[in-house]
Design brief:
By secondary structure, this protein is α+β, with helices and mostly antiparallel strands. Helices cover 42% and strands 18% of the residues.
Length: 199
């Protein structure tokens, strides 16, 4: 079977709206051949390029038309392709936990890889390198809490901050965070310890 037919079959099996990387086809053809085939499929409208080396088969919804994946989904696909660890930025984690009302002007994600800016459609997205300790449990509630507190910083984290977090979480979620005190810097763990002592 020709490489183009194999690649088209592979793409057909991918759910619409899920980003995929060009490297997923390296077992089917040479890198150069894969690039040419994907470019051809982009030209005829079967797939869209959403970032360098990342493509998608758009979802098509009635009254809306084509729906492309979110920047987070695209960046996750990039990270999976490169083997990086990825997390939402501390500012976004703090916003989601209602610890701040500020909305970041630019989308930024933490990564274990190199810092760089990528283009997703017409949008610039920054991938910012951080130390492994700031990438604790990415994609989880407890990871987001710790990331948010790192972002706020020691001077802005107090007992009222911990109380505000507890109000946003279930009892189980909050206990999960408390159990990770050994993974926190001392100033952060101290606030949770003091909060627990108040019970």
């Amino acid at each position: 079977m020709k490489a183009i037919n194999q690649i088209k079959q592979y793409i057909e099996a991918i759910p619409a709206g899920r980003p995929f990387a060009a490297t997923e086809f390296q077992h089917l053809a040479t890198s150069e051949n894969v690039r040419k085939i994907l470019s051809r499929l982009v030209r005829v409208g079967e797939i869209k390029r959403v970032a360098r080396g990342i493509f998608v088969k758009p979802k098509k919804l009635a009254y809306v038309g084509e729906v492309l994946p979110s920047p987070y989904e695209v960046v996750k696909s990039i990270a999976k392709n490169t083997g990086e660890t990825l997390s939402i930025h501390g500012a976004e984690a703090a916003r989601q936990l209602h610890l701040t009302t500020q909305v970041p002007l630019q989308l930024v994600f933490y990564t274990s890889g190199n810092s760089r800016t990528i283009h997703i459609g017409n949008q610039k997205v920054k991938m910012q390198h951080v130390s492994p300790r700031k990438l604790f449990a990415p994609g989880t509630v407890k990871g987001n809490v710790i990331s948010a507190l790192w972002y706020l910083g020691q001077a802005h984290v107090a007992q009222k901050t911990i109380h505000a977090i507890k109000k946003q979480l279930s009892e189980e979620e909050f206990n999960d965070v408390v159990q990770e005190m050994s993974q926190m810097p001392a100033w952060m763990a101290k606030q949770f310890y003091l909060y627990q002592q108040r019970k």
